[in-house]
Amino acid sequence: MVLFRTISLLVAASVLSLTWTADAAGCRYNNGLACPMETPCCSLHGHCGNSALACGAGCDAEASFNGACVRYNYGAPSANNNNNDNNSNDNGTQPKPKPVPTLPKGSFKIVSNSSGVAAQHIALVTPTKMLIIDKAENNPAKLPSGKAAHVVEYDLIKNDYRVVDVATNTFCSGGGFLPNGTLISAGGAESRNSRTFETSAGFQSLRMWQPCDDGSCTFIENPADPAWQMTGNRWYVSITTLPSGDLFVLGGSNESLAINRQATNNPTWELYPKPLDYKPVLMQFMIDAMPNNLYPNVYTLPDGNLYIFANQKSVIYNVQTQQEVKRLPDIPGGPRSYPLTGSHVLLPLDPAKNYQHEILVCGGSEAMSTRANALQSCGRINLHADDPQWEMDQMPTPRLMSDAVILADGKIMLLNGAQQGYAGFLRASNPIYTPVVYDPEAPLGQRFTEWVPSNIARMYHSVATLLPDGTVFVAGSNQNSEVRYENVPFPTEYRVESFTPPYLTTDLDRPEIVSQIPEMVTYDQKLDITIDIKATDKYEPEITFILGRRGFVTHSTHMSQRMIKLVATKSSEDGTKITYSVAMPPNANLMPPGPHYIHVLNNGVPSVAVHLLLN
Ligand SMILES: [Cu+2]
């Protein structure tokens, strides 16, 4: 339960003798030594742990780290310090707990000097392959013809890439996965031809990618065939996988421009797949949300309706009846969509909270000016409330164009972006190097923690996503209208980084999923999953299973990204191996069909995830 619960420091209920000395008694199953910082509490049963159980009733303070049964909030030293202050006593009868040293705050590492093409869009297509999609421009990766590539399949193990040909311009397109794991890339921009690259128009394009492991797959498309086109031009289109498995394709502009205009607005939606004579459906909301309505954010809701956000506005929408259900209040503080781009995420779904859907929107820009400040505020809205309202919060620093990545422990990492300007070529400055992590379970005012900075500027056209191994893939940034290596404030960025969150740098063992997970699972199916927690003598196990989908990432928009906590019941135990009956999500409204990754966590430390298709 460490995952979704506030890991605020719990000071022991015990008011037993709190003296600690060098020769204090140790914790039984820790070789007679006091517990270490990573697993500070000596539990009732003599195991060291950082769980509520280990630090709760019966915990032996004397054998615990620093002589106190105190849970440690990984990566959040400020909360810890506050807690020490809060718990200093006035009567002088109890010693104040020693301050706990700061635990690591993650680390960035460059894993490749070249992604081959500028990473404007990414999609994790297999556990080891990232599809990286740019627009047509003079990238270093070259096709056999000698022309520059604008798509590569990046190998996450070798940190190498394979060039992929695509006929149409993918500039500022969208994407979504079908239930069988096939990726549909849709939309784009005008034809472009030069000495070094060529492409036909992609405004209406549909492209299909059937993932493979053997380097044989490529984009399937047929620009001349109306069946392979959307109903109209869609530049900056959003795509969301629906509970039915169809793709909901929304909005966009008829042409590429700095901000949408009445004359170019495409305020309609359509489905993929579609019959040939299909007509798109007009959505008044997409007119009312002008001009900041590009790359709207769309999430499915438990009742099958959609939540849609654009500009400052949001609406609950019924796809079947093609009607609005209701409008929600505007988020305070200004528009949060392109080009005043904020970060948007559906917080992880938890059965213990009746799968309530809460949306978090952070940052943006105060104006369409290169001198504008980024916004520092975030809004969070609980869609289960009778009368949903935005609860406002503040990030440690202002930011726009950040990526909101749901980490394996259910916290939200905000990284990349700028502190000044807005989205567009040469429009932002003052890059933000320091990521922050948001703990949805912490009390208001204590949710943000800053982590270690990168030293690479990643602003417009940068991306990030969680990998199956629990690290974060970080790439891209190109503020220039063409590839530039020099004589510009921010050259086109090809370096790829891996960010290791602090949950992978504790001394806790990573649990491992050791049983075979079926490639295809269905809703409410119970899977017997055996995990290996590697050690039983160090700490009390605290096990959580989560299922996540990464979706398609571009322009700070993580299309179809979501995570759900699974209901799991322990069925047997054999040494360090424990078997659980794990229930898949109850229905497709909570988790639409498609490719997913399942992690098990022990005391907040995630396993490597296993890929499965939920259908
Ligand atoms: Cu763009």
> In this structure, how is the largest beta sheet organized?
6 strands, antiparallel
> Which ions and ligands are bound to the chains?
copper (II) ion
Multimeric state: single chain
At the fold tier of CATH, the topology name of the largest domain is Methylamine Dehydrogenase, Chain H
Helix fraction?
Answer: under 10%
Q: For the record, give the distance between the C-alpha atoms at the N and C termini, rounded to a whole number.
A: 27 Å
Percentage of residues in DSSP E strands:
25-35%
Name of the top-level CATH class of the largest domain: Mainly Beta
Mean pLDDT across all residues, rounded? 90
Q: Kindly name the structural category.
A: mainly beta
Number of helices: 3
**Proper CATH architecture of the largest domain:** 7 Propeller
Radius of gyration: 25 Å
Order of strands across the biggest sheet?
Answer: 7-6-5-4-38-39
Uncertain residue segments: 1-24, 74-102
Q: What's the shape?
A: globular
Number of domains: 3
- CATH homology group of the largest domain: Galactose oxidase/kelch, beta-propeller
Count of DSSP strands:
45
